[in-house]
Amino acid sequence: MKPTKKNNFFTFIFSFLPGAAEMYMGFMKNGFSILAIFMGACALCVAGADFMMPIVFLIWCYGFFHARNVAKLDDASFAAFDDAYVWEEFDTKRAINVPADKLRIGAAIVLIFVGLGIIWNYVSEIIIMLIPNEYWDYLYPIIYNIPSVVIAIALIAFGVMLISGKKKELAIPKNAADVVATEVFVAKDVKTD
Known about the structure:
The structure is a single chain. The chain is mainly alpha-helical. It has 2 domains: 8-90, no CATH class; 100-192, no CATH class. It is 76% helix and 0% strand. It contains 9 helices and no strands. It has helices spanning 8-14, 20-25, 28-46, 53-71, 75-80, 86-90, 100-130, 133-169, 176-192. Helix 3 (28-46) packs antiparallel against helix 4 (53-71) and helix 7 (100-130) runs antiparallel to helix 8. The longest helix is centred in the last third of the chain and has 37 residues, at 133-169. The N and C termini lie far apart (52 Å). The model has no long low-confidence stretch (mean pLDDT 76).
């Protein structure tokens, strides 16, 4: 599908849902990634991560004005606008390269967590009915906070994965002098040829 400028009124209306206007104009990757980030942040708020509320508002503002700016591009700039994931717009050095299969796996993990959350709500209602009143004050905070704890653990694990991946990328060999000597030797070898 080739991206095209569409009706200004509908583009404006779709701008109120981050990513929808971009998808309406044909920028599917761009719009879907903005929408997914917005919905993910909203899901975290619903799950109890109240600190995400300002971030949700910032994402909404970004999505709204991004759509308006794309819609107002002149024809040449609009044709040159690349349909890329939103994080690729900020990554000018292409340091973040997320293949489609890894993106699919990430989306699957998010959907699994959402499904587990829905199941937990159902199961917790049954557990709450089985708890005698004298234990209610002690057990209710534990049951109520389990989803927030699971999300916090998942976020920490994801952060540790990101840090460990960056450490591997930046790893310096134990004997840096050998690396420097090898590079000097290779450089001399190239000059003599």
